[in-house]
Amino acid sequence: MNWSDLQDFLAIARAGKLASAAEAAGVDPTTMGRRLRRLERALGQRLFEQTREGQVPTEAGEALLVKAEAMERAAAGIGEVAGGHGDSITGTLRVALPEGFGSAFLARHLGEFAQTHPRLVIDLAITPGLLSPTKREADLAIVLSRPRSGPLIAGKLTDYALRLYASRKYLETHGTPHRTADLASGHRLVGYVPDLLHMPELRHLDRLHPGLEPELRSSSINAQHQLVLSGAGLGVLHCFAADLDPDLVPIFPDERITRTYWLVTHRDTHQLERVQAFRNWLLRLVKRERAELMPD
After folding, report:
1. Which listed site, 69, 96, 241, 260, has its alpha carbon 20 to 30 Å from 102?
2. Which CATH architecture best describes the domain 3-81?
3. Is the dihedral of CA 32, 36, 39, 41 positive or negative?
4. pLDDT for 110-151, tens place per residue?
5. Whole-prediction pTM
């Protein structure tokens, strides 16, 4: 086994496609494929599965990736001692996460992490059905409930708060409700589409008063935010988003709904440098911004 074969292996793992890795390395795909097969023969293990999307590391490939990246870091350290500079983390990091957390919180801070790791491509995968670390569709996932099975490592990321909000325009027109029971009549509610809601953690209106149903419904929390902001109705929103908007007013400030985000990684990729770097930064971030996530 030689180091150049491991470098080609790293290139394929990061590009996700043999042809793309070959182009970046300045060789033809046949040569890159031959080097990969040579490495697989030397190890006696298959390192990639061929899928429609490209090359996906096998379990043996993921294990080798951890070791190869450690070797790459060591080599980069030698260069730094000799006077070189630069961050060693490269490739693509894919994070699957809920829409609200991704667009209203993480996106406002992500430039800080990106600036520290300028050679890393970062995908924020905000999809109706979250990409799964179990299937290796994402490197990390931020989820609303802790997974109970699968080859995963899950830990609490942070608690966060939600409240019922209205726009000043809405309150001027419809008045301010004084009790949660007042919401059952005379007020239009904004919320999720019930038959598209597959996570009980998102049934926020039930926590305020039994039997409340929204008349204006969307599967997008960002759309709900805009509906509330426009004066169309009252809605439960993330405090970390709504409290930044001066035109929104919390109704029943003491009726705070508390939920939890969980951080999930695959057991085989948990120790990858890019995964650990993002995980550690994110844990520091939520600790630093706790007042924003859990306001008094």
Report:
1. 69
2. Orthogonal Bundle (1.10)
3. negative
4. 999 999 999 999 999 987 555 555 556 788 999 998 887 778
5. 0.72
